[in-house]
Design a protein that fits this description.
It is a single chain. The protein is mostly beta strands and 94 residues long. The chain contains no helices and 8 strands. Strands 6-7-1-2-5-8 form a 6-stranded antiparallel beta sheet, with no helix packed on it. Strands 3-4 form a two-stranded antiparallel sheet. The two termini are 29 Å apart. The model has no long low-confidence stretch (mean pLDDT 86).
Length: 94
């Protein structure tokens, strides 16, 4: 099954939360922070959104940083994805 986002939406897949700290301490699942880095899986076509022309500058495969609790989480075929607006993406990681 594939996801095709509409308008200015993008589908992203969050990276896994860190299991250990940099100093080697193993974290319990409750102590793990929600990851903010994700990979873009699909991009909507852009166009007119709320009366304004939106040009999509993200592309499939980009690594991005998002707001911690932005978007809608969905689970398809056992995989977890987040659908969010392009404007909720804070930065592209190069």
């Amino acid at each position: 099954m594939t996801i095709k986002p509409l308008a200015d939406r993008v589908v992203i897949k969050m990276e896994e939360a860190e299991e250990t700290t940099k100093s080697g301490i193993v974290l319990a699942s409750a102590a793990k922070e929600k990851p903010q880095i994700a990979t873009v899986i699909a991009v909507g076509p852009g166009g007119m959104v709320d009366g304004k022309e939106v040009t999509m500058y993200l592309k499939v495969g980009d690594k991005v940083i998002t707001s911690k609790y932005s978007g809608t989480e969905v689970k398809i075929d056992g995989e977890e994805y987040t659908i969010t607006r392009q404007s909720d993406v804070l930065a592209i990681v190069e």
